[in-house]
Design goal:
The complex is a heterodimer. By secondary structure, chain A is an all-alpha fold. Helices cover 62% and strands 1% of the residues of chain A. Chain A has one domain: Up-down Bundle (Cytochrome C Oxidase, Chain A), CATH 1.20.210.10. Chain B is of the alpha+beta class. Chain B has 3 domains: 27 residues; 117 residues, no CATH class; 153 residues, Cupredoxins -  blue copper proteins (Immunoglobulin-like), CATH 2.60.40.420. In chain B, a hairpin with a 4-residue loop joins strand 6 and strand 7. The chains are: A mainly alpha, B alpha+beta. Chains A and B meet through helix 5, strand 1, helix 9, helix 10 and helix 11 of A and helix 1, helix 2, helix 3, helix 4 and strand 7 of B.
C-alpha cells in the first residue's frame, strides 16, 4: 500500500507537459480520506466500481422481481403464504395480485434496461477502460464523472423509494405508454409511482449525459502519443459509439418524460385526447398518444444498442486475446459498429408497425431495420473467423464471450422476423418478442458484462475470481438462458400475448402450463447461480488468488502495462507511448506484442 | 415453512459448491497453474461440444413437444393470415439455415481449436474477399425478405374492398364493444363527451345524427365467412390492441385516433372446430397492449358464420337508438326496479333513525 502511494505521488510530480493540464487532479493523493477515495471519488477506476456494484445490487432486485412473477406464471394455482408475509396486500392469500404483477414486470424491465445494463454495464466499463486503454490519467473531467455516478445514485434512490409507495411503483410496462401512464384513474401504478419513475429517469438521463460527454471527450482528446483512432482497441470504439448514441438520444426521452409530467400534473394535452376513463369524461382534446411512442422509441431503440454495443466491443477484445489471434477484420468491425450506430437512429418506428402508422412510412422502417442484419452478420462471421485456427484458452471471460456470440446469433435472427412488418402484425407483443429481446439484448449483454467482469477483475482488484465458480456460473447460465427463452418462441408462434398474468380463461393460450412451470423453475436456478457469481465477486475482492504478473492474460492493450494495482493516475512515470494496433497476437511466431513495443524493421506487414 | 426449507437447501448447496470451488483452486495451485489450466481447458472444450450436441437434441425435442401447439398446425383463418404464414416459413427457412451453420461452426471451432501446446494460432488479420462475401450474401437474402415482406405488407394494409362489411370495435378497461352500421351502411357520428353508459350510450354516439338510428351494438362480433370485413378501431381510456390470433391480425386501439384493418375470414367457427379437432374452439380477441391490471382478462369473441346465420342474428337485435329512446319515453319495468333498488338503502336508513 505505502509503495503504491509513493508511486502515485511520483506519478504526479513527473507528469510531462503533454498531460500537464491534468496535473491539478493529482496533487494530493497521499492525503486521500476515506470519503474522497471510496465515496466522492474522482478516480475513474473507483467510479467504475461504484457503477458496477450499484448495478449488481439493482441486478439482484430486478432478477428477484422476475423470480416473483415467474412464481405466478409457473404456478398459477398455488398459494405462497410467505409472499403475503413479505408483501402484505400486494400478495393477499399468498398470490401475487394483478397490480403487483404488473408492477413487478414494469420494474423488472426498467431496472434491468436502465439501471443494470445501461449504468451497470456501460457505466462500469466506459469508466474503467477508457482512460486505461487509451492511455490517459483519468477522464477529461473527473468531477463531472463523479457527478455522473451520484446522479445515477440519486435516480436509484428515487426509483427504489417508489417501490414503497402505498399505491405501488409504476406498472404500465417499462415503455410507460400514455394514456395508461398519464391517468391515475386507469391504474394504481399510474398514481404517485409514475411521477417517481419520471423524476428518477430524468436524473438518470442527467447522469448518462454527464458520463457520455466525458467518454466522448476523453476518447477524442486524451489518447496517449501514438494512439491514433485506428489503433484503439475495439472496446473503446464500441464505447465511443455507445456514448454518442446516448448523448444524442437520451435528451429526446427527457423531453418525452417532461411532457408526460406536464400531462399528468399540469393539465396539458400532449398525449391525451377524447378520453373517457372509468366513466369520467376528461376535457383533454387534440393530443396524440402516438407522439409519446415516437419520442420514447427514438431513445428506446438506440437504447438497446447502448446496452449491446459495449458488450460487442468487449467480446471482440476478449475473443481475440484468448484465441491468441488478431481480431479478424478490425476495420470491418469498426465499420459495422458505425453502421449499427447510424441505423440505430433510423429504425425506431419498427416498434410501432401496428399502432396505425402509415404503412408506406412503415416500409422504410422495415428496410432500415433489416439492414442492421448486415453489419451484425459481418460481426458474427468475423468472430467466427477470429476463433478459427486460434489456440483457445477458456478463461471464464472467454466462455462468456463465446456464449455471447451464440446468444447474439439466436436473438439476432429472430429480429429478422420482427423487423419485417408483415410478420410483426402476427408476432407483435407476443412471447416471440419476449424471447427475442431477452436473448439478444438481455442475456447476451449480460454475458458481455460477465465476460468483462471476469476479464478485467484482475485489473480492478489485483486478484482473480474463483474459476470453478465461474465455470458453474457460465454453464448453468448458458443452458438456463436457452431453456428459459427457447420455448417462448413457440409460445409466440402460438400467438400467446405477453404481459398476461394468467391464461387460464383463454381457449387459445392455455396450453403451455407445464412449459411455464419448467421455465419458472429454471429461472429460479439461474437466479441462484447469479447470486453465486455475486458472492464470488465480493469474496474474491478480499480472498481471491492474487495476481502476480502485470499482464496475466498476455494481452496487448495498455491497461496491462500499468501496475497490478494502479493508483489514481494509472501509470507511475510517463504514460506509455503506443506504436501499433492492439491485435498483434501470434504475429511472426510471437504470442503477443504489446501496443507499446516499437515496430521493428524485420516485422512482417499485415 | 417451504420458504425456510428452500432457503436452507440453497444455503447448504452454496456452501458445498463454494467449498468444492475453493478446494479445486488449491489443487490447481499445488499442481501448478499451467497444468490446472490445461485440464480445465480440456473440460470446457468438451463441454462446448456436448452443449452443441445436447442443444441440437434439445431443440429437436422442444419442437416435438410444442410444434403441435403452435398455429403452424392449423390454417390461417383469413386470406391475410395465409400470406403471413407463407412469409413466416420463408423467413424461418433462411434464418434457420444461418442459425444451424453459425452455431455449429461456433461450438465446433471452440472444441477443435482448444488450447494445445503444439498449436500456434494462425495470424489472419483480414481478407477483403471473405468480408465482401459475408456482406453481400446476407444483403442479397435480406433484400429478398424485405421485398417479399413489403409485397405482402402493402397487400394487407392496402385499402379494403368496397363491399367490405363495416364493424366498429371499441376497447375500454377491460372489455370490447362492437357497433354495426345497420341498413344504411353508415356508422353514426360519435362525440366522446356524450358517453353515458348508464343511459345506454356507452360509446358516446351522437343521436342527433340520423345515420346512428339504425346502428346496432353488441358485445360479440359476428362475421360472415368469405365476406371481407373492415374494422374501425377505437379506444376510450388507454391504448388497447385488437389481437386476432387465428386471423394473424393485430391493430392498436388508440384513444382519439381511430385505426382500421381489414381481412376476409375463411372458415366459420364450426369449420374451425372440425379443423382443429377442438369442440370448444372459438375465435378470440385478445388485448395485446398492456392496459392496466385487467389486461390479461380483456377477452372478446368473434363468431364467424354463414350469411343466413348472420342475418338471423342481426335481425334479432334492436338498434341501440330505439332501446334508449323507449326507455327515456316510458320508464320500463327494469328501470323502475333499479329505482326501487336505489331507494332501498335510504329507506333502511330512515327505519334505523
Amino acid at each position: 500500500m505505502s509503495t503504491e502511494i509513493t508511486q502515485q505521488a511520483h506519478a504526479a510530480t513527473i507528469q510531462t507537459d503533454v498531460h500537464g493540464h491534468h496535473e491539478g487532479d493529482h496533487g494530493h493523493h497521499h492525503e486521500e480520506s476515506f470519503i474522497s477515495k471510496y465515496v466522492f471519488s474522482q478516480d475513474h477506476k473507483m467510479i467504475a466500481k461504484q457503477f458496477l456494484i450499484t448495478g449488481m445490487i439493482w441486478g439482484i432486485i430486478g432478477g428477484l422481481f422476475s423470480v416473483l412473477f415467474r412464481l405466478q406464471l409457473g404456478y398459477p394455482d398455488m398459494s405462497f403464504p410467505f409472499l403475503e408475509d413479505m408483501f402484505g396486500k400486494w400478495a393477499a392469500g399468498g398470490r401475487i395480485s394483478n397490480e403487483f404483477y404488473y408492477s413487478l414486470v414494469t420494474m423488472h424491465g426498467t431496472i434491468l434496461v436502465f439501471f443494470v445494463l445501461t449504468a451497470g454495464l456501460s457505466g462500469t466499463f466506459a469508466n474503467f477502460l477508457i482512460p486505461l486503454q487509451v492511455g490517459a490519467r483519468d477522464m477529461a473531467s473527473p468531477f463531472l464523472n463523479m457527478l455522473s455516478y451520484w446522479f445515477f445514485f440519486l435516480a436509484s434512490c428515487i426509483m427504489f423509494a417508489s417501490l414503497f409507495l402505498q399505491t405501488g411503483p409504476a406498472s404500465g410496462g417499462w415503455t410507460i405508454y400514455p394514456p395508461l401512464s398519464a391517468l391515475g384513474q386507469a391504474s394504481e401504478g399510474s398514481k404517485l409511482g409514475m411521477d417517481f419513475w419520471l423524476i428518477s429517469m430524468a436524473m438518470f438521463i442527467v447522469s448518462s449525459l454527464l458520463g457520455g460527454l466525458n467518454y466522448i471527450t476523453t476518447i477524442l482528446n486524451m489518447r496517449t502519443k501514438g494512439m491514433s483512432m485506428t489503433r484503439m482497441p475495439l472496446t473503446i470504439w464500441a464505447i465511443f459509439f455507445t456514448a454518442v448514441l446516448g448523448v444524442l438520444s437520451f435528451p429526446v426521452l427527457l423531453s418525452g418524460a417532461i411532457l408526460l409530467l406536464f400531462d399528468r400534473n399540469l393539465g396539458t394535452s400532449f398525449y391525451l385526447s377524447e378520453i373517457v376513463v372509468k366513466g369520467e369524461i376528461l376535457p383533454n382534446e387534440g393530443g396524440s398518444a402516438i407522439l409519446f411512442q415516437h419520442l420514447f422509441w427514438f431513445l428506446g431503440h438506440p437504447e438497446v444498442y447502448i446496452i449491446l454495443m459495449p458488450a460487442l466491443g468487449m467480446v471482440s477484445e476478449i475473443l481475440s486475446v484468448n484465441s491468441r489471434k488478431p481480431i479478424f477484420g478490425y476495420l470491418a468491425m469498426v465499420g459495422s459498429l458505425f453502421a449499427i450506430a447510424i441505423l440505430a437512429f433510423l429504425v425506431w418506428a419498427h416498434h410501432m408497425f401496428v399502432t396505425g402508422l402509415n404503412p408506406f412510412l412503415g416500409a422504410f422502417f422495415v428496410l432500415l431495420t433489416l439492414l442492421i442484419a448486415v453489419p451484425s452478420a459481418i460481426k458474427v462471421f468475423n468472430w467466427l473467423t477470429t476463433i478459427w485456427r486460434g489456440n483457445l484458452r477458456f478463461t471464464p471471460a472467454m466462455l462468456f464471450a463465446i456464449g455471447f456470440v451464440s446468444l447474439f446469433i439466436s436473438g439476432g435472427l429472430t429480429g429478422i422476423f420482427l423487423g419485417n412488418s408483415t410478420l410483426d402484425i402476427h408476432l407483435h407483443d407476443t412471447y416471440f418478442v419476449v424471447a427475442h429481446f431477452h436473448i439478444v439484448m438481455g442475456v447476451a449483454s449480460m454475458f458481455g458484462m460477465f465476460a468483462g467482469v471476469y476479464h478485467w477483475y484482475p485489473k480492478m482488484y489485483g486478484r482473480y475470481m474463483n474459476n470453478t465458480l465461474a465455470y458453474i456460473h457460465f454453464w448453468v447460465s448458458l443452458a438456463g438462458a436457452y431453456l428459459i427463452f427457447w420455448p417462448m418462441h413457440y409460445f409466440g408462434l402460438a400467438g400467446m400475448p405477453r404481459r398476461y398474468t394468467d391464461w387460464s380463461n383463454w381457449q387459445s393460450f392455455n396450453m403451455f402450463t407445464d412449459a411455464n412451470r419448467v421455465i419458472s423453475t429454471v429461472a429460479m436456478v439461474v437466479f441462484a447461480v447469479q447470486l453465486l457469481f455475486i458472492f464470488n465477486f465480493f469474496y474474491s475482492i478480499w480472498k481471491g488468488r492474487k495476481v502476480t504478473t502485470q499482464n496475466p492474460w498476455g494481452a496487448n492493450t495498455l491497461e496491462w502495462t500499468a501496475p497490478i494495482r494502479p493508483g489514481h493516475g494509472n501509470w507511475p512515470g510517463e504514460i506509455p507511448e503506443v506504436h501499433r494496433w492492439a491485435y498483434d497476437y501470434g504475429k511472426d511466431g510471437r504470442e503477443f506484442v504489446s501496443q507499446v513495443e516499437p515496430v521493428s524493421d524485420s516485422e512482417s506487414k499485415h | 415453512m417451504t420458504l425456510t426449507l428452500i432457503v436452507t437447501i440453497m444455503a447448504l448447496a452454496f456452501v458445498v459448491i463454494f467449498q468444492i470451488a475453493k478446494a479445486s483452486e488449491y489443487v490447481m495451485v499445488l499442481k501448478g497453474e499451467e497444468k490446472g489450466f490445461q485440464q480445465s481447458n480440456r473440460i470446457n472444450a468438451f463441454l462446448f461440444l456436448s452443449f452443441l450436441v445436447l442443444g441440437l437434441v434439445a431443440a429437436w425435442w422442444c419442437n416435438e413437444l410444442f410444434y403441435h401447439k403452435t398455429l403452424f398446425t392449423q390454417p390461417a383463418a383469413s386470406d391475410h393470415g395465409e400470406k403471413i404464414d407463407k412469409m413466416m416459413w420463408l423467413t424461418l427457412a433462411v434464418t434457420g439455415l444461418v442459425f444451424f451453420i453459425t452455431q455449429i461452426l461456433l461450438f465446433w471451432f471452440a472444441y477443435k481449436y482448444q488450447y494445445s501446446e503444439k498449436r500456434r494460432a494462425y495470424f489472419f488479420a483480414h481478407s477483403n474477399k471473405l468480408e465482401l462475401i459475408w456482406t453481400v450474401v446476407p444483403a442479397i437474402f435480406l433484400t429478398i425478405l424485405v421485398g417479399m415482406g413489403l409485397y405482402y405488407w402493402f397487400g394487407i394494409t392496402g385499402p379494403a374492398p368496397k363491399d367490405a362489411q363495416l364493424v366498429e370495435i371499441t376497447g375500454k378497461q377491460f372489455n370490447w364493444m362492437m357497433r354495426y352500421p345497420g341498413k344504411d351502411g353508415v356508422l353514426g357520428r360519435k362525440n366522446y363527451r356524450l358517453t353515458d353508459a348508464s343511459n345506454g350510450n356507452a360509446l358516446g354516439v351522437d343521436w342527433e345524427d340520423g345515420s346512428s338510428h339504425d346502428d346496432i351494438e353488441s358485445t360479440e362480433m359476428h362475421l360472415v365467412v368469405g365476406n371481407p370485413v373492415q374494422l374501425v378501431i377505437n379506444a376510450q381510456d388507454v391504448i388497447h390492441d385488437v389481437g386476432l390470433v387465428h386471423f394473424r391480425m393485430k391493430m392498436d386501439a388508440v384513444p382519439g385516433i381511430p385505426t382500421t384493418m381489414w381481412f376476409t375470414p375463411k372458415y366459420t367457427t364450426a369449420q374451425m372446430k372440425e379443423i382443429t379437432g377442438n369442440k370448444d374452439f372459438v375465435y378470440e380477441i385478445s388485448c395485446d397492449q398492456i392496459c392496466g391490471s385487467g389486461h390479461y382478462s380483456m377477452r372478446g369473441i368473434i363468431i364467424v358464420e354463414t350469411q343466413a346465420e348472420y342475418d338471423q342474428w342481426i335481425s334479432g337485435i334492436k338498434p341501440q337508438y330505439r332501446t334508449v329512446m323507449e326507455s327515456k319515453a316510458a320508464p320500463t319495468a327494469d328501470s323502475l326496479q333499479n329505482a326501487s333498488a336505489a331507494l332501498q338503502p335510504m329507506a333502511q336508513d330512515l327505519a334505523k333513525k
